[in-house]
Amino acid sequence: MVDNLTSEQRTKNMKAIKSVSKLESIIAKELWRKGVRYRRNSKSLLGKPDISIKKYKIVIFIDSCFWHLCPIHGKIPASNSLFWEEKLNKNSQRDTEVNNHYKSINWNVKRVWEHDIKSDPQRVINEIYDFIHNCKKH
Question: Which of 3, 13, 28, 136 gets the most CB atoms within 10 Å of its CB?
């Protein structure tokens, strides 16, 4: 399928996409309010984790159902499906590689699905908070 936009228009559109979602902001603000100190989207860490605490070797990823092929909600778009299938499968493979990397260097990894946050944000915040405090103990 041919792109209907010029390369300049496509570049402008892609630059407008924010790397931080509203869901990430909700989680991050609530953790900060609870006294958890962290970094967001740290470029020095593999996979640019949404939340990271280097001191305790913790990385947390908030995965959107579309971009990370959620087993419940992830769907390949019908138009240009070969492109999307390849793209989304590469994202899933990269997620696995990133998880394996952190586990191999004894870091604590947590992944949270977008739909879990949408259905019960307070439960997810509590799970992440507990995860962080359990990691701090070890």
Answer: 28
Q: Which CATH superfamily is domain 20-137 in?
A: VSR Endonuclease (3.40.960.10)
**Residue 126 to residue 101: CA distance in whole angstroms:** 26
- Determine the pLDDT at residue 12: 77
pLDDT value at 56 more than 70: yes
Strand order in the sheet with 58-63: 39-40, 51-53, 58-63, 108-113
Band the pLDDT of 16: cuts 50, 70, 90: low
Q: pTM for the full model?
A: 0.84
What b/e sequence results for 24-60 when a residue is b if at least 16 CB atoms lie within 10 Å of its CB, and e otherwise? bebbbebbeeeebebebebeebebebbbbbeebebbb
